[in-house]
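Progress note, project year one: complex with uridine-5'-diphosphate.
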Amino acid sequence: MSRRKKIYEGKAKILYEGPEPGTLVQHFKDDATAFNNQKRGTLEGKGVLNNRISEFVFAGLERTGVPTHFIKRLNMREQLIREVEIIPLEVVCRNVAAGSLSQRLGIPEGDALPRSIVEFYFKNDELGDPMVAEEHITAFNWATTQEIDDLMAMTLRVNDFLSGMFSAVGIRLIDFKLEFGRHYENEMVRVILADEISPDSCRLWDLDTNEKMDKDRFRRDLGGVTEAYAEVARRLGVMKDQPSLRLVEEGGA
Ligand code: UDP
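Model obtained:
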């Protein structure tokens, strides 16, 4: 693994050069951060779970016609992905008030929103990922008007898919964050879904008890973080090949 060229290291993932041009290997770490890096921790097995959950979600999205960077899972912590030029935006979609929306607008956490809301944040750690409007996005050339339309439409399709998928297993999708990239192929460019979809990037509440099954357990020191992620995986039927959910590493990966 150390022989591979590291392209980028983020908070929870590392990107390595892929086996063929135009591909990368996305490696899921156990590291967790919150509040723009002010809170840090290591959650043993989180990377393995997120790799499998994200694989399951991205494969499902591909089947429903949402283009993504996912090609295939390689091992317990890694997947082969298409190389993209990341659009510097975090696209958040909300169905129920929580987190920063509740704080900024004083809407109690747990209130259903009148309709799904899509928000854009500028990806910039130094600035703490500030919220931006379409005006900023086009004025600063982060994305074109056409690309914003594509991001919106794809985000709402992902929301429909995820909401149905999670409600079928007794989980309420409160909100989630997506990232997109430009994929260049045969002199064509199109926007595809990138990054990951996992309990690190979604708020997921148990339908019956409202118990949190996502990264808020880490952010708010609720404990049982990996156990909650494992329960999400179990309900989705992910990692059925390892019913005990023992997070044993394959081949030293
Ligand atoms: N989110 C994320 N990465 C970020 C910021 C937010 O994955 O850098 C996700 C977060 O897990 C939640 C949704 O986006 O599912 C909305 O987050 P919010 O704006 O409420 O911010 P937070 O409360 O996480 O600061």
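The chain has a mean pLDDT of 95.
The helical segments are 46-63, 99-105, 134-139, 145-167, 216-219, 225-236.
No further modelling is planned for this target in the current period.
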